């Protein structure tokens, strides 16, 4: 054949296309080969590795630098003509022709079917074998269409045969093709005629076959068509003695010694084409017939192809693989991709197959929005995919593979579409163990187990100052070495030492002053968070209470999320959730089907582009990572912030191992995670932390007058607060700031103007303020309407103000969030709940120490939601009978008046144990005397005192008339009168108890200030003091009589009368002092229901000092005098016992002394305990309230009841005994005289 005739025209057209460098002289192989090559054969540039001209000594080759010529090796890899492992590309002799005889003119002649002399590209693998192929790249690309009519003939000499096989046959046409061409194989007879063996237009499976005649392969492409995928054909020439023996069609006897000559047609295609299976032995790569029959095995995975009779969805295919004990194929290493290509080429799968690749855009961190993840959770980095804009609208897409090895397509598909029938499953056949740890930069001490990483990491920093410098007070260094925002230092989620949720957080400063800020308590009481995190459009509290209260500005000029958050318009429908509520991605979604891909091999550095939000994977020759990255065992370098983020970046998941013990020395630790962030990635304009906290407060300033912790300021003097619109917390206590200084801070949630000298409150535009502290100011008048615009106000503190007037102007507005109002330590006097008419949601009201003595007739009807009421320290005496009856929400009451806890006042269903008021030890809600035992002993002592002392009076006035007892009798008579008054007092109290029995608490305020109660108390104090004074006089009288019986210094009748008058005068004065106009406010006798206050408890009351002075000090002085006098009497009696006296006189004096001692001892037993308890109570020693009851009912009246029996009835008994003794003595004397007389 001559080629010179066609060369001028061919060179002309190739010159037009810039392909003239591809034209060279013809090359012929020896005729004995029987193979006719194309008219021009050229070595591709660059040459395949391992190529040598010595392999083709008879070939005349013309090297060329043609850059546009098709690369034969690329074509072979695309079509699968060369099997990996079976035919090593680097060792093959690969050529391609630059000029295939195709139609040079796009005319009707190109469609004629008589162009039998056109040829196809060829690659010779030996002198007698080679590969022929056809594909899109074999077309010179002369236009939109690529018509051709090419052929290839294998001429078989006599006594020879040829073996033909087609590893790949996929005739696929461009989508704009209107007519389909074909490929056909024909046998050439000896006479030159042809006989068609087969013709195919699409994908078919063609078995290897032996022909003893020459064969011709023809490929026809019509003028309006283009071939996008083609075929590869292997051929070899064999002598008759070495012709492959055929057992049956497609199966051969491979036990012959010349099997290697035709092995290339059979080897390693996962099909038993040898009768004994020699073609699929252990020499085949990825083959393990025992562990994975019909599939390929690589790195412990078995890949098998599954074909269904009908189309299925990606999800159905995955479920089927899972039922088989595996999953869809995941290809995370180069070997796995090679095995996958091996399976695809062996199955002739130049068609669509589902694989286990998927997008998880809503489930993964946003840095992975442009990456795809294998179904086993490992991110795909080895296939670089081109992301189309349309695909970004899909939150979840799945993938299928389409193409041939080395050049393939990945199709984006909807996971629930019924599209294809093929998919590849993987099953783990054995586990692979190896290096399971990553290498960290040297800033992680001890993390690499002694491995020298100095050569593996380089510092690529820019040398600028780091946000994590020690002098940056916006960040703090925690105990384990990591850094976090200062406002997160008290957040348990930041791992900065806090084990529980604190109520306050200290602020670090360079100075000596240390302040703290309050923490925001979530409504469900499960946690506290910093106020900086409140109203940030992101839910931190479990119940969302940190966001549900917020009112956001309505001046959003961009896109506004449903939550109120503003984002840039370009962030809407970009496939990235920028609104915390996800409303920016509620979009109409479209799908772009196809995108091309190519394989990437490590070592490589992976970086996430912060501007374009894309992924850059930069290949490199050495495994060297920057200090901002860590190194995976497979050679990929990833940023530190991808470690322990819940996504497997390393192919073996090494980056997600040991995350429970992760520390971040010198790095920023992300909130609620184990993610560590290098300083270079902090405040870089793109969030890498899961909670985005690495981009918080990057442009934050702190005024010099304040200490700052995020958006929380603690300020000591005035500053321009309006310049900080994002302020959430402001503690301006003692700063001199006014309410007008903070108006307009729409995001302020907590505000304290404590001790700022406020004399008035102006209206404030603070829609989000939740806590407002105006305590310790100079407010004496306040209209509550000023707080109505604060729609989120929940806590209002007005305590410690001289507030005496609190009004409401009756506005129709209602504030429906205020829950806690503190009006303690003010000067209200009386409380009218109408001042809270604009705040019907108040649940806690503190009126302690507010001088409230009366609750108006409205009660608390304007606070229907009231749950807790504190009236401690306020002596509330006046209140309506239904003060609490209609408050069904009431749960707790604190008061000093026990009557407010009486059942008749409380609403139905109220638990009385939650009403906290001091128990009245004497009275109860029903009775003046709370106990029947109190009542019984009171009447016993009353009867004894009255009857005993009346008997004593009658005895002294009418029975005892001897002169020797004049002074003594007068004193005892006065003592009986005084003790009688005690009995009258007890009778009055007992009578009142009887009158008010069962309804006492309604009449307590009637009884205690009544005249009857005052008379009873007056009589009680008068009786006590006169009785004590009289006993003192009696002691003095007896001392004078017994110590100096013959002296004139003693009480006479007149002096006795004067002394008695003096005793009564003193008693009357002491008892009348509390009734004087100047002391009436003491309500001395109205303090208790028994009308006499004993100062023996720590409770304070007006006139307590007076009661203590009289009942404790004065009576103690009298008791001391009495005790001293008794001691002197005993001493006098003992000294005078030796002096001769008449036995009768001595007996009388000793009897009087014993009687007086009994009286004094009884007084001692009554007054000494009272005195001791009074002293202890004054020093602060706690005295149980029951002791007061015992002293008032059992001890105090005891002396009055016993005195008549001690000094009157006892004397009468002694006289009766003396008379009996005289009578008996006289009888004995008479009998004796009778005996004498007889």
UniProtKB/TrEMBL annotation:
<keyword id="KW-0807">Transducer</keyword>
<feature type="disulfide bond">
    <location>
        <begin position="535"/>
        <end position="550"/>
    </location>
</feature>
<feature type="disulfide bond">
    <location>
        <begin position="625"/>
        <end position="637"/>
    </location>
</feature>
<feature type="transmembrane region" description="Helical">
    <location>
        <begin position="936"/>
        <end position="959"/>
    </location>
</feature>
<feature type="compositionally biased region" description="Basic and acidic residues">
    <location>
        <begin position="105"/>
        <end position="118"/>
    </location>
</feature>
<dbReference type="InterPro" id="IPR016186">
    <property type="entry name" value="C-type_lectin-like/link_sf"/>
</dbReference>
<feature type="region of interest" description="Disordered">
    <location>
        <begin position="98"/>
        <end position="120"/>
    </location>
</feature>
<feature type="transmembrane region" description="Helical">
    <location>
        <begin position="1057"/>
        <end position="1076"/>
    </location>
</feature>
<dbReference type="Pfam" id="PF00001">
    <property type="entry name" value="7tm_1"/>
</dbReference>
<keyword id="KW-0677">Repeat</keyword>
<keyword id="KW-0732">Signal</keyword>
<keyword id="KW-0812">Transmembrane</keyword>
<dbReference type="InterPro" id="IPR001304">
    <property type="entry name" value="C-type_lectin-like"/>
</dbReference>
<dbReference type="InterPro" id="IPR036055">
    <property type="entry name" value="LDL_receptor-like_sf"/>
</dbReference>
<feature type="disulfide bond">
    <location>
        <begin position="664"/>
        <end position="676"/>
    </location>
</feature>
<dbReference type="InterPro" id="IPR017452">
    <property type="entry name" value="GPCR_Rhodpsn_7TM"/>
</dbReference>
<dbReference type="GO" id="GO:0005886">
    <property type="term" value="C:plasma membrane"/>
</dbReference>
<feature type="domain" description="G-protein coupled receptors family 1 profile">
    <location>
        <begin position="951"/>
        <end position="1207"/>
    </location>
</feature>
<dbReference type="InterPro" id="IPR002172">
    <property type="entry name" value="LDrepeatLR_classA_rpt"/>
</dbReference>
<feature type="disulfide bond">
    <location>
        <begin position="632"/>
        <end position="650"/>
    </location>
</feature>
<keyword id="KW-0297">G-protein coupled receptor</keyword>
<dbReference type="GO" id="GO:0008528">
    <property type="term" value="F:G protein-coupled peptide receptor activity"/>
</dbReference>
<dbReference type="Pfam" id="PF13855">
    <property type="entry name" value="LRR_8"/>
</dbReference>
<keyword id="KW-1133">Transmembrane helix</keyword>
<feature type="transmembrane region" description="Helical">
    <location>
        <begin position="1152"/>
        <end position="1177"/>
    </location>
</feature>
<keyword id="KW-1015">Disulfide bond</keyword>
<keyword id="KW-0433">Leucine-rich repeat</keyword>
<dbReference type="InterPro" id="IPR001611">
    <property type="entry name" value="Leu-rich_rpt"/>
</dbReference>
<feature type="transmembrane region" description="Helical">
    <location>
        <begin position="1106"/>
        <end position="1131"/>
    </location>
</feature>
<keyword id="KW-1003">Cell membrane</keyword>
<feature type="transmembrane region" description="Helical">
    <location>
        <begin position="971"/>
        <end position="995"/>
    </location>
</feature>
<keyword id="KW-0675">Receptor</keyword>
<protein>
    <recommendedName>
        <fullName>G-protein coupled receptor GRL101</fullName>
    </recommendedName>
</protein>
<dbReference type="GO" id="GO:0009755">
    <property type="term" value="P:hormone-mediated signaling pathway"/>
</dbReference>
<feature type="transmembrane region" description="Helical">
    <location>
        <begin position="1189"/>
        <end position="1209"/>
    </location>
</feature>
<feature type="disulfide bond">
    <location>
        <begin position="644"/>
        <end position="659"/>
    </location>
</feature>
<feature type="disulfide bond">
    <location>
        <begin position="683"/>
        <end position="698"/>
    </location>
</feature>
<feature type="signal peptide">
    <location>
        <begin position="1"/>
        <end position="22"/>
    </location>
</feature>
<dbReference type="GO" id="GO:0007189">
    <property type="term" value="P:adenylate cyclase-activating G protein-coupled receptor signaling pathway"/>
</dbReference>
<dbReference type="InterPro" id="IPR003591">
    <property type="entry name" value="Leu-rich_rpt_typical-subtyp"/>
</dbReference>
<dbReference type="InterPro" id="IPR032675">
    <property type="entry name" value="LRR_dom_sf"/>
</dbReference>
<feature type="disulfide bond">
    <location>
        <begin position="561"/>
        <end position="579"/>
    </location>
</feature>
